[in-house]
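Q: Trace token order:
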Amino acid sequence: MVLHLEKRNIFFVIKRSFIHNHTNSLQNLFTIVESSQAQIEVKKSIFWAFVWPVKTEEEANELIRLNKNLKATHNCFSYRIGYKSPFISHSFDDGEPRGSAGKPILNAIQSENMSNICCLVIRKYGGTNLGIGPLSRTYETVTKLCLQNANKIILQSEKEIKIILFDRQYIGLEI
């Protein structure tokens, strides 16, 4: 969009929504409208996944604090926040083998091209070790199921563009 304006001593503020993503390509970045959940059982272990839309790390950490189950064996989580790269992201394995829970949750969020998302997966251990590969796939699968159950929207940030015009000058602005 190109704006050509001719006015005298006028201050304009134009608001326009911009769609961003981490690759700056034509793909859209998504978030969810409201919370969602999913559950799966693998070898008597039960995995509950919960996702919420968030805008800040503080909001994500507060949701995790309020919703984790202290009686569960593991409360693993990841969140990804931002409108473009670099995103703010964090993941936590909570006693699972390193990289086998939090990272797969984050991978599921990224593979769905989503941001401003917080996901908590609660595991109740069923007595059988799954192994790192199957365990990682289970965390990623339950997260993807949860995200697929959610109502998605295109993530947009609102930017303000200020245009100041000087006496009888043309100003062209590309947006």
Residues 132-149 form the longest helix (18 residues). Residues 23 and 63 are 28 Å apart (CA to CA). Residues 1-26 have pLDDT under 50 and may be disordered.
